[in-house]
Amino acid sequence: MDTEKRKQRLREMFQRVVDPLGYKFSPDEEIVDFLLEQEVIIEKEHGHPFCPCQGLTGEREIDMKIVCPCIPFHRAHFDAMKRCWCGLYVHKEVDDPDSLVQISRSEFEQMQKEGRI
Amino acid sequence: MSEENWVYALEVAELADGEKKALVIDGQRIALIRKTNEIFAISNKCVHMECPLSKGELEGYIIKCPCHDWRFDIRSGEFLDARELKVLVYELKVSDGKVYLKMEGENQ
Amino acid sequence: MYTLSTCPWCKKTKSFFAEKNIPFEFIDYDKASKEEQQKIREVCSAHGEGIAFPFVIIGDDVVVGYNPQKYMKLLES
Ligand code: FES
Question: How confident is the model at residue B104 (pLDDT cuts 50, 70, 90)?
Fold first, then answer.
């Protein structure tokens, strides 16, 4: 299948998933286009559009949790960043995604422990 | 306006316990699932990437999508890992061994 | 640093180091052998992290994610 068409198709399907979760595609169109393109390439190679910024393990149970959009499986963590790990999606109110920083999982867990979030 | 649109789907006898069937009614892809003496009808398009849930594994009232293992409660349609996401659940009635679904002009 | 060839933040991290003329080594996890991947996963989990990239090691410290400020702070110390 044509890459551009597949990107468009993923965009339509994923829009319907992330919208009820309070997310939207990042306003940074360049990043969005790049990430969707990577997902199409990854899908061709591995059969599924996995997150371009997380690593596969070969274990189905773990890997299925990073098929895009992986927000449901990392909800609290991504909510704290107002963005998903790779930055394809942001919270609906975010207009300036460059102002956001990536918080690693251990930092997030630390923040939770200290009650900062 | 509120005229109910019940559409014949299949015979109860066509569904064995634990069996799932894929149907297209009014252009909508629907999965019929029998769980002991109950029958459920849900959209057969997974909310993730539209894979057919009828090909998934059923455990209790939970069906697991064959594509990426998203799990849905066949009673409410809810996705277990984010309840805001749901597959459509169709109202259903059985009369004379026949199953009818209530169809609305839903998104297909 | 451990990176992915498909991740834009990994690219940004590499160019940040390159622009600042800071020498660095990297392994792209997705291009690595099974054994290397296994090793990288062990490093990630030893730091309480998932398998998320970029994973930048500066001295004894680790920064996961694209974070120039943190890189600079660690590089200066
Ligand atoms: S299509 Fe159902 S889990 Fe992905």
Answer: confident
Q: Which CATH number do you get for residue A30?
A: 3.90.460.10
Nearest CA to C50 out of C66, C64, C68 is that of: C64
- Say whether C6 and A109 touch across the interface (CB within 8 A): no
Q: Which residues pair with B52 in a beta bridge?
A: B45
Residue of C60, C64, C59 lying closest to C13 (CA atoms): C64
Report CA(A61)–ligand 1 centroid distance (Å). 14
- If one counts the domains in chain A, the total is 1
Which residue out of B48, B57, B65, B83 would a mutagenesis test of the A interface target, given it has the greatest number of A Cβ atoms within 10 Å?
B48
Domain-wise residue ranges, chain B: 3-99
Cross-chain CB nearest to B47 (options A16, A61, A67): A16
Contact B84 A20 (CB under 8 A): yes
Please provide residue A22's backbone torsions phi and psi, each rounded to the nearest 5 degrees: 90, 15
pLDDT along chain C (77 residues), means of 10: 98 97 97 98 97 97 96 93
Domain span including residue C65 = 2-76
Second-level CATH architecture of B3-99: 3-layer Sandwich (2.102)
ipTM, two decimals: 0.94
pTM for the full predicted model: 0.94
CATH of residue C52 = 3.40.30.10
Total structural domains in chain C? 1
Contact (CB<8Å) B50/A13: yes
